[in-house]
Design goal:
about 45% helix, alpha/beta, globular, six-stranded parallel β-sheet
Length: about 250
């Protein structure tokens, strides 16, 4: 029987990789504007991420759930949603509850079913989400809750008081899964993410990374030049992750 220390660690990002942040558009359309629903969802996600990067730069921290709430208010204001709707706390509460029940990408169920049969894999969820938010999302998502048992643990960055792609959070992940921060141990962990900034951060910290390129547009991020700034593997969907990762592993 393979020991845990010999298994391949796959750290799955949650928001934007397993859960579709664009699936929140339906609720935005119901409560605010059906015509602007898709744009609202995109803008909300944009500011949600921008707020985390700004917080890192300012050396400040607040839970991701609060980041999400504040970026929603920013989004509603930018899209000139009526003031009375923006000030309605019951609607904000409904939106936050809906965020705890995001839909999954279509490729998630079959991919997790396949990965669950791989005896050499140990999977965790690794997310910016604070622990209560992670638990709510895992239990509240109709499509993902049934697969919670597949993941050994939910690893939140909250203890570090930093957000991705700060290198501190990837080293913290190593600690949580029983690995050391040295080059060999870091390179035995794989980040699985649909977010390019997350991939670049993991690579800079010494991890391997598989980028899930669902749109098929190819890798465009140019912050870090050369192979160091590119994912080790690219999968067109989550189902291709295992095949790509095993090309690099014995």
């Amino acid at each position: 029987m393979m020991s845990n220390s010999d298994k391949i660690i796959l750290a799955f990002d949650l928001y934007g990789t397993l859960l579709s942040t664009s699936s929140i558009a339906a609720k935005l359309g119901e409560l605010y504007s059906s015509d602007k629903a898709k744009d609202l969802a995109l803008t909300w996600r944009k500011y949600q991420l921008e707020y985390t990067w700004t917080a890192n730069s300012m050396d400040t921290y607040m839970p991701f759930s609060e980041i999400t709430r504040r970026s929603l208010r920013h989004t509603l204001a930018e899209h000139r949603i009526a003031q009375e709707l923006r000030d309605d706390e019951s609607k904000i509460k409904q939106m936050m509850q809906a965020y705890d029940a995001l839909g999954i990408f279509d490729d998630v169920p079959s991919a997790l079913e396949t990965l669950s049969k791989a005896s050499n894999i140990e999977a965790v969820v690794f997310s910016n989400g604070d622990t209560p938010m992670l638990n709510n999302s895992m239990d509240g998502s109709p499509g993902l809750s049934q697969y919670r048992h597949f993941f050994r643990s939910l690893v939140s960055v909250e203890e570090t008081k930093r957000f991705k792609p700060d290198p501190v959070v990837y080293r913290y992940l190593a600690k949580r899964v029983g690995r050391k921060e040295n080059k060999d141990d870091m390179s035995q962990m794989w980040l699985i993410s649909g977010n390019p900034f997350d991939v670049v951060g993991a690579k800079a910290a010494g991890m391997r990374a598989c980028w899930v390129d669902r749109t098929g547009d190819g890798w465009c991020d140019g912050l870090v030049e050369g192979i160091e700034g590119r994912p080790d593997a690219i999968a067109r969907d989550l189902g291709g992750v295992l095949e790509q990762v095993t090309k690099f592993e014995p």
